[in-house]
Amino acid sequence: FSDVLALPIFKQEDSNLPQENETKHPPFQYIMCAATSPAVKLYDETLTYLNQGQSYEIRMLDNRKAGDIPEINGKLVKSIIRVVFHDRRLQYTEHQQLEGWKWNRPGDRLLDLDIPMSVGVIDIKTNPSQLNAVEFLWDPTKCTSAFIQVHCISTEFTPRKHGGEKGVPFRIQVDTFKQTENGDYTDHLHSASCQIKVFKPKGADRKQKTDREKMEKRTAHEKEKYQPSYDTTVLTECSPWPDTPTTFVNNSPTPAPTFTSAQHNTYSVPDSNSSSPNHQGDGTSQGSGDLHPSATIQETQQWLLKHRFSTYTRLFSNFSGADLLKLTREDLVQICGPADGIRLYNALKSRSVRPRLTIYVCQEPLRSIQLERQDAGNGDSSNGAIYVYHAIYLEEMAASEVTRKLALAFNIPLHQINQVYRQGPTGIHILVSDQMVQNFQDESCFLFTTIKAENGEGFHIILK
Q1: What values do phi and psi take at 112, rounded to 5?
Q2: How far apart are CA 109 and CA 157, in angstroms?
Q3: For a tag on the chain, would you pick the N or C end, based on fewer CB atoms within 10 A?
Q4: Where does the record place the Grh/CP2 DB domain (predicted)?
Q5: Are 112 and 198 contained in the same domain?
Q6: Across-strand partners of 177?
Q7: Is residue 276 part of a domain?
Q8: What pLDDT shows up at residue 259?
């Protein structure tokens, strides 16, 4: 739900594996006081049901061992809590989904902090442009609890098909940062998240009851394949949310606050309505030709603008060339819709329009009138002369198209070409007509020579 597209990779750890060397001991732990579903397979990620608008406690716990991160001792840290999409398809279309939600729910936020119930949180901030996030400072050495309220429900983002609905899952993610030397809280320390579904008031309780009743009906052997339901939900470690500043062209006197991780580069991204990026990269060649995997984020933005995809520059504002080229045709259709998705896929794959006919033409050397026999292996003639052919691609099966393409390929003034002939049996000259072109075999090879026109003005081309 941020203004930038984000594709986090969640590193779910298997709790059954022995922790022989605890090299990655998390400095913090976040526990949400809501029960997990009993209808989750043993090795799947937990799923927690929440009621819309109900306050749920997230306990912020200091999990450091002695000597871990001593620089934050006696200091505050900043945490950002977000509700984001779990599904990759919805992450791609995040901006459009958020805009649609705002239209239907003007003035509402997707996520709020219940300030009166929260304990130990200070300097609470909400950004009007980020309706899905709240941030605050807290002291790890003190008891801290943040009570959150999720106002969007899972079925609001489900397309209605075949008369039924299935709510999409969200994620609650907490990212924690320490203060840098210049006073900004941008030095990333820890991130964790959990999967949730949000129901209308009391809906989560009914769903939990339904799942519990279903599990009670299963045999003991079947129950072994499912996780037990826990009273609380432990957020598991994940990648930091790759949120970059949304520095768009606008008339705002002061920029909106942004949340950035020190592990990620930050870029300025052009507004979807602007004609050029805010920052021109060094590799300007990326904007005109093929998009290369080595293209930077700025170069990818330029390429999108150059190829008339300015509507999607904001959506792909965090994508490099390699990121964009990894998307499949189905991904792009889901993100951009059928028309623009197919067009973007073809542009990325450099899919040009296939010609209707291809012929190969070589200009006969002026020193020789008689066609010399060519070697089939390397194109050399018997006396060592090299014949260089030009590929002529015909989009139209017409004689005029042949004339025009020959003039372009061999740099001949078009108005000086009177007729194009094909040499037939016994050396006769046959006028090249549309019907003859339509009966050319694909990838035919021709030598051609020019002769002066009878009236002395221009010349004729003879294909041999």
Answers
A1: -130, 160
A2: 15
A3: C
A4: 24-261
A5: yes
A6: 78, 188
A7: no
A8: 34
Mean pLDDT by 10 residues, the chain (464 residues): 46 45 75 93 90 94 86 91 80 68 80 92 87 92 93 78 64 92 88 93 92 90 89 91 45 33 34 34 46 85 84 82 86 83 83 75 63 46 66 84 83 82 86 87 85 80 85
Length of the chain: 464
How deeply is 296 buried, as exposed, middle or buried, from its count of CB atoms within 10 A (0-12, 13-18, 19+)? middle
Two tokens, residue 180: 């840098």
CA distance 253 to 152: 31
* Adjacent-strand bridge partners of 127: 130
Residues 80 and 113 in one domain: yes
Q: CA 416 to CA 240: how far, in whole Å? A: 67
DSSP secondary structure letter of residue 451: E
Q: Specify the number of domains making up the chain.
A: 3
- Residue after which a domain boundary falls, among 191, 206, 237: 237
Residues 119 and 228 in one domain: yes
Tell me the sheet residues that pair with 84: 171
Q: Are residues 109 and 181 in the same domain?
A: yes
Partnered with residue 420 across adjacent β-strands are 461
pLDDT of residue 95: 66
Q: Are residues 129 and 219 in the same domain?
A: yes
> Mutual orientation of helices 338-348 and 329-336 as an angle, nearest 10°?
140
Q: Are residues 343 and 362 located together in one domain of the fold?
A: no
Which of 214, 237, 260 terminates a domain? The answer is: 237
202 and 344 assigned to the same domain: no
Q: Which stretches of 158-262 are assigned E, i.e. beta strand? A: 170-178, 187-199, 233-234, 236-237
The pLDDT value given to residue 34 = 94
- Rounded CA-CA distance 19/25 in Å is 10
Residue 419 confidence (pLDDT)? 83
Alpha-carbon dihedral 444, 446, 452, 458, rounded to 10 degrees: 50
On whether both 340 and 363 belong to a single domain, the answer is: no
Rg (CA), the chain: 33
Q: State the Cα–Cα distance between residues 69 and 74, nearest whole angstrom.
A: 11
- Containing structural domain, residue 412: 357-367+386-463
Amino acid identity, position 45: E
Strand pairing class (187-199; 236-237): antiparallel
The Cα-based distances of 168 to 50, 91, 140, 238 in angstroms read 13, 12, 34, 20
The type of residue at 247 is T
Q: What are the structure tokens assigned to 436, written together?
A: 């003859």
